[in-house]
Design goal:
about 200 residues; mainly beta; Thrombin, subunit H; 2 domains; six-stranded antiparallel beta barrel; six-stranded antiparallel β-barrel; about 45% strand; globular
Length: about 200
């Protein structure tokens, strides 16, 4: 079974790479140092770095920020540039790196263990679409539920809290991970069950 272990020997041209990467296919947005944003896709990832495909091209050693669906905010520095991808380091606390390692280990072992596709992507059909979005300052704003899954939701709302803002969808804690035309996407603080989402179902 796959598990993340420090590499026994790192390539001389990659001194900061100490974990084995796994193949992923996770979309998100990339913000360059000049604050321009572009759609991106993480194609390989380890707890220490990520291989990114993006139409936005950063420069060597440029500091970038990626907002990856279901993983959240990743900050780092461009390590290598290729024709259609680049490698960025992941600057993270030990706790966040451990959490990322656990998520990636689960992805790597999913098929070997015969597990179903990532449940975080399962879409549920909400029967109740009226909801409230709570902010840290106590404001509660009416919104409409557009999409719902065990790991998050998309809501139609006029205001756009910044990406990374802690929010509560009714009583479900989470944070804003993406903006879209009608509103914002929210990642729940923990994966939910159908029982915990019964207010919407």
């Amino acid at each position: 079974m796959f598990s993340f272990q420090p590499a026994q020997s790192a390539r001389q041209i990659q001194p900061t790479r100490t974990f084995q990467r796994v193949s992923v296919n996770m979309t998100g947005r990339l913000m360059l140092a000049n604050h321009e944003e572009y759609p991106c896709t993480a194609v390989e990832m380890s707890p220490g770095d990520v291989v990114m495909a993006c139409i936005g091209r950063p420069g060597p050693a440029e500091r970038v920020i990626a907002y990856i669906d279901h993983l959240g905010r990743l900050e780092g520095t461009v390590q290598q540039l290729f024709d259609d991808t680049f490698v960025m380091s992941i600057n993270a606390t030990d706790r966040k790196r451990e959490k990322l390692a656990a998520q990636l280990t689960w992805l790597a072992n999913r098929h070997e263990l015969g597990l179903p596709e990532d449940r975080r992507h399962d879409r549920l059909s909400p029967r109740v679409t009226r909801a409230e979005l709570g902010l840290e300052d106590g404001r509660r704003i009416s919104c409409r539920l557009v999409d719902l899954s065990l790991s998050g939701a998309a809501v139609d709302i006029e205001m756009r809290p910044e990406v990374g803002t802690p929010v509560a969808l009714n009583n479900l804690r989470g944070r804003v991970v993406r903006h879209f035309a009608e509103g914002v996407a929210i990642e729940f603080a923990s994966v939910q069950t159908r029982e915990s989402l019964r207010a919407f179902l």
